[in-house]
């Protein structure tokens, strides 16, 4: 319940088969900064900032670039993520993505 109070959501994983928490961040209409690992690139929309894993300088720069935006710009990015969530993650689509992530882990 704290997520709506955030200015930006950051997921700095080194390994992340499926970032379910990213769906929660999109539901909270937050701009996202995340590392480009696992299926994260396929989860977030174009407004998210993706950086290389284990690269704190890139991560810090991406966070800074979001926090330097005004409230309305951050809101627009968050709203675009929310629309992406609604359009891309129906129950059937979510099940398919989850099955793909599990298959990647098992094979």
Structural description of this entry:
It is built from 5 helices and 3 strands. The radius of gyration is 14 Å and the shape is globular. Strand 2 (32-35), helix 2 and strand 3 form a beta-alpha-beta unit. The chain has 107 residues and is mainly alpha-helical.
Shape: globular
Average residue-wise pLDDT:
93
How many E-type strands? 3
Low-confidence stretches: none
In whole angstroms, the N-to-C terminal distance is: 36 Å
Q: Name the beta content range.
A: 5-15%
Q: Which structural category do the helix and sheet elements fall into?
A: mainly alpha
Order of helices and strands: EHEHEHHH
Major sheet summary line: 3 strands, parallel
Integer-rounded radius of gyration: 14 Å
The proportion of residues forming helix, as a percent range, comes to 40-55%
Counting DSSP H or I runs of 4 or more residues, the number of helices is 5
Strand order of the largest sheet: 1-2-3
In short:
The protein is mainly alpha-helical and about 110 residues long. The chain has helices at about 20-25, 40-45, 55-65, 70-90, 90-105; strands at about 10, 30-35, 50.
Which helices and strands, and how do they pair?
Layout: E1 9-11, H1 20-27, E2 32-35, H2 40-43, E3 49-51, H3 56-67, H4 71-88, H5 91-106
Parallel strand pairs: 1-2, 2-3
């Amino acid at each position: 319940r704290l997520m709506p109070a955030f200015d930006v959501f950051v997921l700095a994983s080194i390994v992340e088969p499926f970032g379910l928490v990213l769906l929660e961040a999109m539901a909270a209409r937050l701009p996202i900064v995340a590392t480009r690992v696992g299926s994260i690139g396929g989860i977030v929309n174009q407004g998210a900032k993706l950086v290389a894993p284990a690269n704190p300088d890139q991560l810090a720069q991406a966070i800074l670039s979001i926090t330097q935006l005004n409230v309305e710009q951050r809101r627009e990015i968050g709203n675009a993520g929310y629309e992406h969530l609604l359009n891309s993650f129906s129950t059937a689509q979510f099940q398919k993505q989850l099955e793909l992530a599990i298959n990647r882990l098992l094979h």
